Each structure stands twice: as structure tokens, then as C-alpha cells.
Amino acid sequence: MAHAHGRGGRYGKGLAALGAAAALAAGAAGTATAEGAEGAAAVPAGARYVALGDSYTSGPGIPEQTGGDCARSSVNYPALTAKALHQTSFKDVSCSGAKTDDMWRAQGDNPPQLNALGTNTRLVTVGIGGNDIGFGDIIGTCAQLSSGDPAGAPCRTKYTDGGTDQLTARIAGAAPKVAKVLKDIHKRAPHARVVLAGYPAIMPEDGTGCFPAVPIAAGDVPYLRDTEKKLNTMLKDEARKAGIRFADTYRPTLGHDVCKPATDRWIEGAQPENPAAPFHPNAKGEAAMAGAVISAARGR
Known about the structure:
Distance between the termini: 48 Å
Largest sheet: 5 strands, parallel
Number of strands: 7
Strand content: 5-15%
Shape: globular
């Protein structure tokens, strides 16, 4: 596949980068271990600000990296939010690869994320749901299929085969899981203001792709864009039902998607030119997300 349509090494590197991202997520999504269970007691419970979430929260690949296999950045949106809101009691337990289930179970050596909450917690931010619908696998599948039909919509065809959009169904299936997370956050941190963060604008808003630099077929770019919008709509609805705040990180990142030049790109593509994981925010993207989260936390 690396040589499909004469694109040779460049396309191959893009798929290799996608594979690296998948490996990163898989490595961070290990099952509970005895070491991880023991580590739960070492987590300072009840920091005043606790950040929960997946890789869009943790910021894999963005210097400086902390958190071991959770791949947290020192300039991810939780860190920037803590600084802007002068939160000196701050615990970031976001972890690359996290699903909603990982709020209650260890990821490798990392204790369940909800263990970081307590009655002293006054602010909680959470970004979750993308891995529940299989975001990494979706991107990898679409990239693979694009090589054989770059002008078509092979990914949309695959996921809508039989007349039902499987990705829309996955989003609907993830909704009660997100609701359960939000309910337990309130139970464990009853005095906290809670902000649920959406996902930033990954694909171009006008639906025009940039194959082969980003190996997504022409017709699949708007399909993936619309799928992400459905995911964000679900998250916004669940936030409303739970009586918490929703941070719209999509609007402030419009025009800085995977197809923009490196200097104006806030979400990296298959071959990151700024430090970040493929199809993830870079430092500028995390800063833009932080702006939305800070505004929501302040009640604006």
C-alpha cells in the first residue's frame, strides 16, 4: 500500500505515523494490573482542580511530555487552564487511549481516573467519548481504504453498508456511558463545577481534503467531519442533561485543520510537522481548546 498511486515513501510514512498513534493508544489502554491497583492510594485525592480525559486532553507528542504511557503534555489544555485560573491544587490524570470505562479501571500503571476526585474538588474538566466510538480505528480504516479510491468515499460506503450508519449508532451507544461518567463525577465531587470538553475541528469545514498529504478520500472528508459534529452534539446534549457546562472546542479551531499549512495548523495530519500525535492537536490546538474550557469554567 505504501506505493499506491506512485506516492511511495510519503504515503507509507503517513500510514506508519497512523500506526504509531494506534500503538500509543493501545499501550496506554492496558488492563488493570496489581501495580496499578496499588498506585491508586498514591494519587492525591480531592485536588481542587482535576482534569480527566483521553489523548485530546493529555496532548501526546507535545513537549514536554509527562505521565509515562499516558503521554501528557506540560502545555495541554488542563495545564493552561490551571495556570489561567490560578489553580495551585491541580491533578491531571488524563491518559492517552482512555475510554469511558477507564474512569473506573486502571490503564496500565495508571489508577482509575475518577480516583483523583474528592469532596475538596471544586473544578473538573473532562474530555471523553472519541475512543468509545473507535476514533483511532476509524481514521486508520479510512486511510487504508483511501489508497484504492482516493476520489470516492470508500469509508462512508463501508460504515453505511446495509443502510445504517454504524458510526452514528456508535455515538448513540456512547451517550449513556458519558452520562454515567458525569453522574459519578458529581457523586464523588459534589461541590465541583464540571466542564465537558468537545473535540476540535479535525477535518476541513468546507469538506475539501488534501490527499495524499492527509490520506483520506475526497468523499470521506465531509463524512468524517459530519461524524465528529454528531459526536460533539451528543456530548453537548449529555452536558445539558447533566446540568454541567460544555466547552465548544470545535468553533475556535475552525480554519486550522489537518489540511492547513504547518504554520497555521492546530490539528496535525498523518505526518505531523509540529510536535503532536497524528490527527491530534498540537500546542496551538491545545491552547485554543484551553480558551474554550477556561471560558466555560468561568461561566461565559
